[in-house]
Amino acid sequence: MRTVTIADVARHAGVAVSTVSYVLSGKRAISATTRQRVLDSVRVLGYHPNAGARALASKRANVIALVLPLRAGMNLPVLMQFATSVVATARQYDHDVLLMTADEGPDGIRRVAASAMVDGLLLMDVEVRDTRVPLLRDLAEPSVLIGFPADAEGLTCVDLDFHRAGAICAAHLAERGHREIALLGAPGVVYERGTGFAERTRAGFLAEATERDLHAVAVPCAETYDEVASAVKLLFDAHPGLTGVVVHNEAAVGHVLGALRALGRAVPEDVSVVAICPDDIAERARLTSVLIPAEELGREAVRLLMAKLDGLPAGSILLEPRLTIRESTR
DNA sequence: ACTACGCAGCCAATGACATC
DNA sequence: GATGTCATTGGCTGCGTAGT
């Protein structure tokens, strides 16, 4: 059976092709009776617009690219929260999402953008010196970054204010009377790569600790139980007076708690723990935490990209972190 | 003023035909 | 036979306008 085109709908409804187009796009007023006749024909014939033809005529693909590197040390559940939120929000703006991983490198981004396959790009896991950033400046298509590169001039970026997040955690522990605190961060490779959020959390944490005259250390943290356990043991061997720990590593949170238990240190009686992680993880373990608002970040990123597609100015956004106090700190 | 129509144009792929 | 030129094709959008 031949696919149904807009011409079939027009014939069936007894109107012009352009009238059908206007009914469907809503860009011009069409009388209620004509409108209903067209919509009935659409339903009866089972018409769906041809995306290729629509892109040809409108110069809009109604597709955005989500560039997601899937590098070592990334936390997949959090990444999926972002991706889900991006796809759902894009649908609200009548856009679909093309998922790109990093295997193809900058060439892949260039190819997809230059071929008019997508109208705009969303980049996740942006590094401080991201090689993709210079490319984005040259591209005709608008883009939004989730994460901040070193030089964000002329770019639209969205992120949680991780510097503040690190500081808030240190401040909370200080207010609860802790004098010696530690940050267990992302895996080492993440710092070596220059991923902004990891570095900024550490900087904010250490700066706030210095400000409040605390003794503070920050160490990277792997994700298998054995590695976490030995890191935690080393930490307490080196700093026996440690009573406050901030964990900025979703995958390691559970292991850190297990390792503390194994060392005979009770939470929160002996050690207070603050996590920077999605709410569901913190909720499950009743941890005091700063939420990573993946859902909101994805939504805001799409919103900004859509604004840019409409030619509107779109400034960068830093979301203010919020601390939720649960049972793991005292 | 309002409604709906006609038609040019969007761009890459393909076919028809001419030239080397 | 390979190569070049040009018109046509596809589904849809949106400007300009005819008919009330």
Core attributes:
14 helices; transcription regulation; 12 strands; about 325 residues; 3 domains; alpha/beta; 434 Repressor (Amino-terminal Domain); elongated; Rossmann fold; DNA-binding
Task: Characterize the structure shown.
The chain is an alpha/beta fold and 330 residues long. It is 47% helix and 15% strand. It contains 14 helices and 12 strands. The protein has a 6-stranded parallel beta sheet with strand order 2-1-3-4-5-11, with helices on both faces. Helix 1 (6-13) packs across helix 2 (17-25) and helix 1 crosses helix 3. The chain starts with 5 loop residues before the first helix and ends in a 6-residue tail after the last strand. The model has no long low-confidence stretch (mean pLDDT 91). The protein binds a DNA duplex (20 and 20 nucleotides) through helix 2 and helix 4. It comes from Herbidospora solisilvae. Keywords: DNA-binding, Transcription, Transcription regulation. GO terms for molecular function: DNA-binding transcription factor activity; transcription cis-regulatory region binding.
Oligomer: single chain
Residue share in β-strands: 15-25%
> What is the ordering of alpha helices and beta strands?
HHHHEHEHEHEEHEHHEHEHEHEHEE
**Number of folding domains?**
3
Instruction: Give the CATH class of the largest domain.
Output: Alpha Beta
Largest sheet: 6 strands, parallel
* Major sheet: arrangement of strands: 2-1-3-4-5-11
Mean pLDDT figure: 91
Rg result = 25 Å
Global morphology = elongated
* Relevant CATH superfamily of the largest domain: Response regulator
CATH topology value of the largest domain: Rossmann fold
The helical percent reads 40-55%
InterPro entries: HTH_LacI, LacI/GalR-like_sensor, Lambda_DNA-bd_dom_sf, Peripla_BP_I
Pfam family, one: Peripla_BP_3
Keywords: DNA-binding, Transcription, Transcription regulation
Domain HTH lacI-type: 4-58
